[in-house]
Inverse folding.
């Protein structure tokens, strides 16, 4: 054959080889938008750090099915608008295969329509039940829902013979959602909500609302639905106003930052949270003990910071995704989505996850623990 | 219950009064509304937190933070206002808005975007008064604010520099003709106003936490208080601040707690519609 044709064929062959070689090494792109700074920073900062640390670990061990993970993350600062912008950038410019993110409910819900339209699997790290109910094809989540928080708290209240409570909540998406859920399920647990106060985002003084609650003689306990700076101020004002009834918080404050900001006022506060916060105090046969301890040791050694459940949500999301990609054999969005939905008995920091087409969260109340703040640290409530 | 609302209203009202006094000072010296006033408040609080965390004892941290804020105020005057001294008042106001955005951005870089708490000056055991509870920090707020107002009254009434500031606010040309250096007056106003804001920020941080963007709301509410009391009147700033604080607390307690912030802004509208000179402002008339 002519030299030019041979050369042409050889170069084509060479191109084909390098192309397939390049494809086989193409990294799996995981994108994230997290509230690393801003009012939700004690959610997003540990989430970012966790994802970075574990993706590094996975890559050092050879990646997923021979492919490295490329991590692209943006800081949404807790703002839903920014979250939407960054999610669009992840989908259209960075062309990621999967998104983990949405530290807060507001940010997550703002991104849901985009993710459904782009048909890309999205694992949210936010709390409200509305994220997975009604179930959306491409949206999953790892933290316990706000409804579960209400139920877990009401169970504890019932065991303490509390029947009439006051609710106080903020203006954010999670706050409003949890308040709605608590109002809905209270009756099932024999709890009656006799006072319902609210505060605005960024409010710095809740003594007026708490004074009203104090003036209501029927109130036997107070439930604060919210996260961020609001609950810390509510806790401080709670002590200032001299309320002596039990105070319950949601899992939105399950970070040492909350205890620090509240000062001594957080003593005795109860909240539902994942087992990892009390990892060393778990009994030896607890199914979550190993995972929780391993995460705690690794995170504290690397970042010299206390762990929080928020980092745990990110850990669960990452490994659920990675296991799904391994089972799917590729990063194809539809296949990975199907495999995420088939997650069964995944032991994470939040609990044991089993998802179904109708349940894109996969957790129940079993592994949601009731914790109490004692001596500035978490302890299992008796 | 009324007592509790009154006490929290007075506490936050004292802070608004201090911020409003800052607005008044600069307005009197230059007819400019300094929208970076809130940022001076923020710098005071954040600098104190940062210096305390670096190991300085609290009193030293506070003193340094106030000095730092005053320096920021002087820098603002020297580098942003003075070069544009012949521009219209509106342009200068816009410059201060730009400065406030710059200061916020710098704060988030120099420090961080997290929320910070500060140790109360004398503990946090609530004091019971008239069926309500008061934090010791609130007493600090009200006490220091009262002392500052008294000091300012002495400064403007009895010192030459204070009288020079007052003279400039009445009639700038006449003041210049009398040998008063308007440039110096402006510098002092901005420095003093920044120090006032910083003190407010430091006093209130143990109660409300501080962060890089705490100046936005506090600045706007201080502005509302200044308008309520009459822009340009020192007594008006104090009255307006206290009134706004109490109205907010009452509104949150008796009306709706979710819309507390709206009260300040609705008040601005009401005042501008019905009483544009505020409660204590001069009823001015244009002479043809």
């Amino acid at each position: 054959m002519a030299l030019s044709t041979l050369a042409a064929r050889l170069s084509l062959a060479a191109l084909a080889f390098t192309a397939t070689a390049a494809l086989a090494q193409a990294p799996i792109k995981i994108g994230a938008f997290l509230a690393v700074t801003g009012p939700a920073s004690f959610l997003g900062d540990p989430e970012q750090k966790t994802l970075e640390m574990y993706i590094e670990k996975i890559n050092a061990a050879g990646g997923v099915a021979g492919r490295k993970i490329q991590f692209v993350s943006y800081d949404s600062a807790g703002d839903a608008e920014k979250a939407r912008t960054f999610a669009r950038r992840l989908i259209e410019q960075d062309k990621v295969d999967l998104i983990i993110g949405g530290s807060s409910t507001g940010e997550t819900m703002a991104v849901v329509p985009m993710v459904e339209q782009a048909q890309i699997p999205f694992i949210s790290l936010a709390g409200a039940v509305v994220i997975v109910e009604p179930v959306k094809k491409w949206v999953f989540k790892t933290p316990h829902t706000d409804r579960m928080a209400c139920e877990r708290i009401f169970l504890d209240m019932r065991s303490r013979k509390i029947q009439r409570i006051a609710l106080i909540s903020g203006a954010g998406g999670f706050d409003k959602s949890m308040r709605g859920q608590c109002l809905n399920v209270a009756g099932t647990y024999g709890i009656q909500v006799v006072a319902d106060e609210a505060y605005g985002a960024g409010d710095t003084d809740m003594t007026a609302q708490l004074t009203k609650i104090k003036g209501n003689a029927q109130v036997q306990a107070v439930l604060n639905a919210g996260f961020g700076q609001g609950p810390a101020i509510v806790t401080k004002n709670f002590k200032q106003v001299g309320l002596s009834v039990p105070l319950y918080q949601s899992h939105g404050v399950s970070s040492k930052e909350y205890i620090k900001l509240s000062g001594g006022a957080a003593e005795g506060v109860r909240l539902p949270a994942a087992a990892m916060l009390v990892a060393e105090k778990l009994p030896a046969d607890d199914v979550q003990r190993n995972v929780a301890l391993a995460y705690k040791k690794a995170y504290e050694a690397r970042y010299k910071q206390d762990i929080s459940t928020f980092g745990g949500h990110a850990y669960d999301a990452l490994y659920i995704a990675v296991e799904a990609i391994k089972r799917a054999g590729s990063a194809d969005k539809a296949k990975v989505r199907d495999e995420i939905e088939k997650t069964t008995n995944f032991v994470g920091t939040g609990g044991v996850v089993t998802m179904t087409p109708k349940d894109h969260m996969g957790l129940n109340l079993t592994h949601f623990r009731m914790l109490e703040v004692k001596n500035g640290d978490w302890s299992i409530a008796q | 219950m009324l007592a509790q609302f009154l006490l929290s209203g007075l506490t936050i009202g004292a802070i608004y009064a201090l911020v409003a006094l800052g607005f008044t000072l600069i307005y009197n010296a230059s007819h400019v509304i300094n929208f970076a006033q809130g940022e001076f408040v923020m710098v005071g609080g954040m600098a104190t937190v940062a210096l305390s965390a670096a190991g300085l004892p609290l009193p030293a941290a506070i003193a340094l933070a106030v000095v730092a804020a005053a320096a920021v105020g002087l820098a603002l005057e020297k580098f942003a206002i003075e070069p544009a001294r012949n521009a219209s008042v509106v342009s200068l106001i816009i410059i201060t808005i730009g400065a406030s955005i710059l200061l916020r951005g710098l704060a988030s870089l120099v420090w961080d975007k997290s929320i910070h708490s500060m140790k109360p000056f004398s503990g946090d055991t609530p004091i019971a008064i008239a069926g309500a509870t008061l934090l010791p920090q609130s007493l600090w707020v009200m006490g220091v604010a009262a002392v500052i107002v008294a000091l300012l009254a002495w400064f403007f009434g009895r010192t030459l520099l204070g009288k020079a500031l007052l003279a400039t606010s009445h009639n700038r040309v006449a003041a210049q003709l009398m040998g008063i250096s308007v440039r110096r007056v402006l510098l002092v106003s901005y420095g003093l106003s920044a120090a006032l804001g910083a003190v407010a920020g430091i006093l209130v941080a143990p109660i409300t936490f501080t962060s890089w963007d705490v100046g936005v709301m506090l600045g706007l509410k201080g502005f509302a208080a200044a308008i309520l009391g009459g822009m340009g009147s020192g007594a008006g700033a104090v009255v307006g601040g206290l009134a706004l604080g109490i109205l907010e607390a009452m509104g949150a307690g008796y009306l709706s707690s979710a819309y507390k912030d709206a009260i300040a802004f609705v008040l601005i509208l009401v005042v501008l519609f019905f009483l544009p000179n505020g409660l204590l402002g001069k009823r001015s008339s244009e002479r043809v």
User: Anything to note?
Assistant: The two ends of chain B are 53 Å apart (CA to CA). Strands of chain B lie at 127-129, 132-134. Chain B touches chain A at residues 1, 4-5, 8, 12, 108, 112-115, 117, 124, 126, 128, 132-133, 135, 207-209, 217, 249, 252-253, 256-261 (CB under 8 Å). The longest strand of chain B covers residues 127-129.
